[in-house]
Batch of 3 targets.
Target 1
Amino acid sequence: MAAEDTSALPGLTRLAGLVRSVQTPEFAGVTFHEIACKSALSRVPAQSGMPFEWTINPTRGCLHQCTYCFARKTHEYLDLDAGRDFDTQIIVKTNVVEVLRRELSRPSWKGEPVALGTNSDPYMRAEGRYRLMPGIIRALADSGTSFSILTKGPLLKRDLPLLQQASASVDVGIGVSLAFADARLQQQVEPGTPTPKARLDLIRAVADSGFECGVMAMPILPWLTDSDEHLDRLFSQLAAAGASGVTAGALHLRPGAREWFLQWLAREYPSLVRRYRDLYNGGSYASKDYRQWLAGKVRKFKLRHGLTGGAAQLRVSATAAARRGAVPPPAEASFEALPVHEPTLF
């Protein structure tokens, strides 16, 4: 049974829309802050270069606890830290379906494609408790809005029949995030995420349901997952599971994620800390030479395993753009350019 926590964090108590903060035995150490949001759709800044203009994030913070997550910085806008708070203080927009239906019914809504899974995973374990995604899927499909989902969560399998129904009327793209073939390393870096096997099973289920399933194999970690052996093994497993294509790229260390990831690296692989600092030179991106070197390896293994399809977000956006007579998004669009602030959060 959920227990209400009346001692919500000070920063959150100042937010309009905070309904209650709850803790439950099945999520030990986690507090869910339930919010009555004012907006469900968030516009992506044009300068981001992303292949979509709108996102929906039913939650903020993430139970996946990925040490590298670029969205960690968003928690600082809530007077929470980008480390432990991001993993354990989860904002849930409990009225998101109602608000979304209202926004999609406005005459000003032009039906641009919407992406889910950009700042938080819509199918992390909390979705089993709140069940927000079925209502979101129905609202988008009913309004004629194409959409894409990127997730690490096998819970998406629950909604595959609903997604099949939606795909009869709108374009639906599904992508799975998996960058690790080594389960031990994966659990070190992403301690709250499902195992590689669970995600390979998800890819297989998505493909068996008639969807193309693109994989986001990001981040590739220098000196940890960028070897020929690892990439060959990973791409071989993805192809065997039925993935239609792979988007892969080097670790991106944006402020907020950088500090948290480097702390983890110092604990687990201290001999690599100096090499990472030199490679990133205080910035968010690995050196240009490294990125070009990695891109060449990725191309080789994509070709070897027949994984030349694009990301789900790109596919859906390109199809929708073509229908509107618009210019399709660039093929090189990357999640590294996503905004870190969601101005219409509450």
Note: The chain has one domain: 3-327.
Target 2
Amino acid sequence: MPVRNTSLKKSWILQPRAAASRPICAPWKLHKVAGQQALQLAPFAKFPWLIHGFSTRHGGVSALDGQKLLNLSFMEWDAKENVLENRKRLQSTVDAKDLTLVVMTQIHSDVIHPFSTVPSQPRKGDASITNEPGLLLGTQTADCVPVLLVDPRKRVVAAIHAGWRGTLSRIAQKTVGRMQMEFGCGPTDILAAIGPSIGPCCYEVGAEFVTKFAAQFADADEYFDEARTGDEPNPLQWLNMKPPGHQPPPKNVHLDLRKANRSQLVAAGLRPKNIYTSDLCTGCRTDLLFSYRKEGAQSGRMLSVIGIRKPQRRRRPEIRCA
């Protein structure tokens, strides 16, 4: 696909300050329970059998720089017992105390695992699917895009971790295909929640990313503020009399991973009206969320979870003798 050479900034690229000032608006809301909180989506909450939520950085027992944080991944700077307690707190917040959490070892891939039982050892991959009540699928992020899917007709759910590598490998689109293959799901029945992630305001990448994405996606130029490859002629080398190869490196561009994953879901057959995208940027909102890019190696990790409630057992009525 030919890449357009343009220096015009696209209007959807927000400045970080503007992105940080955005409130949490419907259909998203912060669900709060006893000092704990999780971001939830109203269209998902209307299904009584469905459990879901996107964690924030608040309400945990992990200690870092004098703060108590809800870190949900096993990090070098945090104790294992803290992470386990934090996970219990998140499950309590989203009313999933009786579900078993399934979290994979994420490898920035397009590997997808369907689960019918809890694995004896963590699987390596970046998307999980189940139709089994009692399993709570989780994906860990601190800038990457978390995507939760639900087919309310078939009662199938999925959790996806989409960094730039997974996005480039079409993991969101492939997960929808796997739901069709494994469970007979119809894409037009599926609802998607694209959770908080680093926004185009803060996600600066090399100009070579334009080439990487343009090789895979026909609409790739819509993911970037400037569709430059870095190979365009640079007039500065003649103006400043520097020989070729000594000019400044090409300027970086801004990438919208959320838009790229939304485009994949539409390509997979989802109705655009059934795809809900949070505009919370992890880079702008470090007051609420974790961001590896902004905080470095000591950033915590958030957990996005989705699962199917266990069926309620009906109590037999007591028979009293006269």
Note: The mean pLDDT is 90.
Target 3
Amino acid sequence: MGRVKTLEELQETCRGLGIEVATSGRASKEPYIAALREYHWRKDHPDEPLPPQIQPMLLGSWEDLDEAEAGEIEADGSGWLVQQKIDGVRALLHVERDGVRVTSRTVSEVSFRLSEFQDNLTHLARGFEALVGTILDGELVSPVAVIDTGATYTENALQATMAVLATSPANAQKIQADQNARLIFHAFDILKLQDVDTAQQELPARLDLLHKAVHDAQNPYVLEMPSYVIGKARIHQSLIGEGAEGTVWKQLSGKYRPGERVRHWIKRKRGISMTAFVSNFKPGTPDRGNRDLVGAVEFSCHHADGSVSPIGWISSWSDEERRAMTARNAAGRICLNPDYLRRKAIIVGQDLSARSRRLRHARLVCWLDS
């Protein structure tokens, strides 16, 4: 699951293979990825159709709502429901005539197809004989936080999940069997049921079909995600209090739009807010298109004992903000604008990493100008 190639690299790869790609409008990666995917599939499978390559629907963010919008969504009878957000790996489970495929959101740099995990998760293949033509959307999660990978020990369930998916099929199966760590698929939506497209049905109808599919599968490692429509704000706070990563708020009338980022599914994560100051920076990189500007800014915190420690990096800056932060030293190299060094701000993150004690997914709330 490596880095996705830049547009220029994809174009060069296609030219090197003699692949002509028809494009229109603004240049994007998708037609080049599709062409390379088709090329590599046809080379090895000339007489077989390419398996469906479906990206899951992507979530909006609660932070993008204003106070009135948030209050309206939280209200009972608002036409929304809430589900727990689990810290795992997003996947689609495809029940096909020759078995089960489990696809991720990432694109292989070898085949240019969506990465597949079914060889590492053979326990998920059982019980679907009556559900051929069904596609479930969900999250793969390890039931234990600590596993021995043979090289290291994981510290949380997300690390354990990724370790199982990243290793060889034989090692993945041994780890899961020996350490009672078979990954669980928490299903929260359904795109197809027995070859019938369900994506354009509204959410309550899809959830009824999902309930039927999970029941009919009778696989103990495929679970249905609970949904709540009453007391949603209280449910959110309760889940956060129990240590959950957060919640997902879903509009009942929303349709399923594969590969799109939508506003009718909204992730709402727990957060930690801190007062911090700018302590360092990293230059931008060519692959992100900000080579001549500041790329990321480090924030640090003062502690009660007088010590200082880094608390997180933030890289989600606009081009205008990057230009304001960027200066050059006497040698002409990029440096941080001195006006930003030690500038105070409120930053928020999802939680603290157990190992580094830094904020995960840190972002700026506001600057505290003196």
Note: The longest strand covers residues 272-283.
